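Standup notes, structure subgroup. Blocker cleared on the heme C input:
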Amino acid sequence: MRFLSARRRHRFTKPLILLLALFVIGAFYTSFAPSSKSTAQTETTSSVKEGEGLFAVGCASCHGPNAAGGSQGPSLVGVGAAAVDFQVGTGRMPMANTGQQAPRKNTEYSEAEIKALSDYVASLGAGPAIPSKGDYTLPEPKNAKEREDREKAVAQGGELFRTNCSACHNYAGLGGALPEGKYAPTLQGVEDKHIYEALRTGPQQMPVFAKETLSDQEVASIIGYLTELREQQSRGGLNFGGLGPVGEGFWFWIVGIGGLMVIATWIASKGARSR
Ligand code: HEC
Ligand code: HEC
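Run returned:
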C-alpha cells in the first residue's frame, strides 16, 4: 500500500486490518468447517472447471459456448454425463465432419479429461449419470444355484435382445444397414459400460431405452447375453472380422505375398542393373 500517503495510512490502517482479519477468518471458516464434504466438492468443482476449458477448445465450435447449441451441433444441456462418456469414450466426439454419422474411432482424450468433460456437461443440467460396474454386470455365480440363475438371466437377455435390438443390430449383434446410408454398428468389442450408456442416451437413430423400459437388471442380462455371444463366436469360427480362426491363414498370406514381393523387387532391380 505504498501509494497511500502516510496520513491516510494512519487513518485507514486499523479498520482495514480489522476488515482483512474478518475476511481471513470468514474464508478460513467456510473452507474448513464442513470438512467432510468439502474435499469431494472442490474436486468436482475443479473437474467441472477443467471440463469447461477442454470444452471451449474442442467442442464449443459446434455445440456453442456453454454447450447451449450452435449451427453445427445440438445443445448438450441435460444430455447427462453418460452421453458425454459414451460419445467421447468411443471416439465419436469430437466429430470430424458434420452431415454424416459420427463413426467410432480412437478417443483423443484421457480418462481424466473425459471425466472432466462429463462433469462439466452434467453441471449444466440433470441427465443419465455414468454407471458403476454393478449397474450393468450380472453377479459372478458362486454355486450351482447361482449358475442356474445366471443362465436364466442370459436367456432372458437373449430374448430382450431379439425383441428390442436385433431389428437394427442383426441377430448376432454384427450390425446392419439403415435407410439413408446410416448403419447400426457391430456390438462386438464394445465395452460393457458403453453398451449401458448407449441404451440410456440413444445416440443418433437409436431410441433411448430408459429405466422404465429396460431396468438395470434387464440391461445387465442383455450385456451378459452379448458377452456369451461374443465368446461363442470366437470359439466357433463364426466371426468375420476377428483375428480368431482367421489368424493363421492371415499371417500365411502376409508372409507368403510379402516374400513374393521381395523376390519380385530383387529380380526387377537385378534386371535394371544388368541392362
Ligand atoms: C464438428 C462438430 C462437432 C464437434 C467438434 C463436436 N461435436 Fe458433439 N455432436 C455434433 C453433432 C452434429 C451431434 C449430433 C449428431 C450425432 O449424434 O452424431 C453431436 C452430438 C453430441 C452428443 C450427443 C448428444 C445427445 O443428445 O446424446 C454429445 C454428448 C456430444 N456431441 C459431445 C461432444 C463433446 C464433449 C465434444 C468435444 C470433445 C463434441 N461433441 C465435439 C457435432 C460436433
Ligand atoms: C432403430 C435402430 C436401433 C435399435 C432398435 C437399437 N439400436 Fe443400437 N444403435 C443404432 C445406431 C444407428 C447406432 C449408432 C449411433 C451412432 O453412431 O452414433 C447404435 C449404436 C449402438 C451402440 C454403440 C456401439 C459402438 O460402436 O459404440 C450400442 C452398444 C448399441 N447400439 C446397443 C443396442 C442395444 C443393446 C439395443 C437394444 C436394447 C439397441 N442398440 C437398439 C440403432 C439401433
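Discussed briefly. Residues 90, 92, 101-102, 104, 164-165, 167-169, 178, 182, 184-185, 187, 190, 194-195, 198-199, 203-207, 209, 222 surround heme C (ligand 2) (CB under 6 Å).
Next: hand off to the docking folks.
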